[in-house]
Amino acid sequence: MAFNDTVMILANSPRNEGKLEGASHTGTMGVPGEGRYIRIHLIVEAGTIKAASFESNGCPASIASASLVCQLVCGKPVENARQIGGKDVIVILRGLPEGKAPMADMAVSALNEALETPVPQD
Length: 122
Fold this sequence. Notes:
Elements: H1 5-12, E1 25-30, E2 37-45, E3 48-56, H2 60-73, H3 78-81, H4 86-92, H5 101-116
Antiparallel strand pairs: 1-2, 2-3
C-alpha cells in the first residue's frame, strides 16, 4: 500500500498540527487513546473560520487528510466549510490507497462536529 507524494508531503510535514490556543470550537472523531482519532480545533469569528488545527494519532492518510481539511477551511465562511466532503479531500490529495478513504471522511466528520461544538468559555 503506497501513498502518493502529495499525501506523504502532508503526512511528513503537516500544517496546522497541534492544539489551537483560544479555539472556539472543537470536534473529535474516534477516541484518543483507543485507536485512530482526529480532533479539529477552530477559531470562528463572525461566521468565518479564522484558524484551524488538528491532532491525530493515525496513519499518513489521516494526518494528510486532517492537515488538508484545516488548510481548506482557514479564512472561509462556516457555510463553505460545511460543503467539503471526504471525496473532495481524496481528489485534492490525488487519491488514497485502498482501505484508506475512511480517513478523509473521518477528517471531514471531525470538522463538521467542530462546527457544531463550541468550546465552553469560562
